[in-house]
Design a protein that fits this description.
This protein is an alpha/beta fold and 155 residues long. It contains 6 helices and 5 strands, in the order E-H-H-E-H-E-H-H-E-E-H.
C-alpha cells in the first residue's frame, strides 16, 4: 500500500487562498478553509498512484476533522497518525507520530509526507515534500508527489 501523510494547514489552506476570488465566493455552508482545487489534486494523486491518505495534521485532535474533509470532497482517508502534541509538549515531533504509524503497519510499499513544516526524522526526509504555505499544494507539487510515489521505495 502507498500512503500519503497529509498535513492540512499550509497545504489545503494557505496564505493566497484567503485572499483569492474563489475564497471570496464561498458560502458559509462550504468548508471555507479548504481549497477545492487542492482537494481535486489530492484525489487525483490518490487515484493515479493507488495511494491512501493518513492525516498527520493537528486537525486530527478534533473528532470532526474527517467529516469536514470528506464534506469538502477529500477521498481515501483511511487513518490518522497518533497524537503526541499534547502528551510530549516541546518534545513533540511529527516524525515520531509517522514513525509509530509506519511501525504498526507492515504492508507499506511506499509513502510521502506532504507538509509545510520540516519536523521529521532524517530517514523520512527522502519521502518529504515541502509545501510553501503561501501557495499550498500546487499543480507542480502534485507532479513531484506523483513522481515520488512512483519511484521512492520505503526505507
Amino acid at each position: 500500500m502507498k500512503i500519503i501523510f497529509l498535513d492540512l494547514d499550509g497545504v489545503v489552506n494557505y496564505d493566497k487562498w484567503y485572499i483569492s476570488e474563489e475564497y471570496q465566493k464561498l458560502t458559509p455552508d462550504q468548508e471555507l478553509d479548504i481549497d477545492p482545487k487542492v482537494i481535486d489534486r489530492l484525489n487525483r494523486l490518490c487515484l493515479e498512484t493507488s495511494s491512501k491518505i493518513v492525516i498527520a495534521s493537528s486537525w486530527k485532535v478534533n473528532t470532526y476533522y474527517k467529516n469536514r474533509l470528506e464534506r469538502a470532497g477529500l477521498e481515501n482517508i483511511i487513518d490518522k497518525t497518533p497524537d503526541f502534541i499534547f502528551i510530549k509538549g516541546n518534545d513533540y515531533c511529527r516524525g515520531e507520530e509517522i514513525d509509530m504509524w509506519l511501525k504498526a503497519h507492515d504492508n507499506i510499499e511506499n509513502y510521502i509526507i506532504i507538509d509545510d513544516v520540516k519536523d521529521f526524522y532524517e530517514e523520512q526526509l527522502p519521502h518529504f515534500l515541502h509545501i510553501n504555505p503561501h501557495t499550498g499544494f500546487t499543480e507542480d507539487d502534485y507532479l513531484v508527489a506523483r513522481n515520488m510515489l512512483s519511484t521512492c521505495v520505503n526505507g
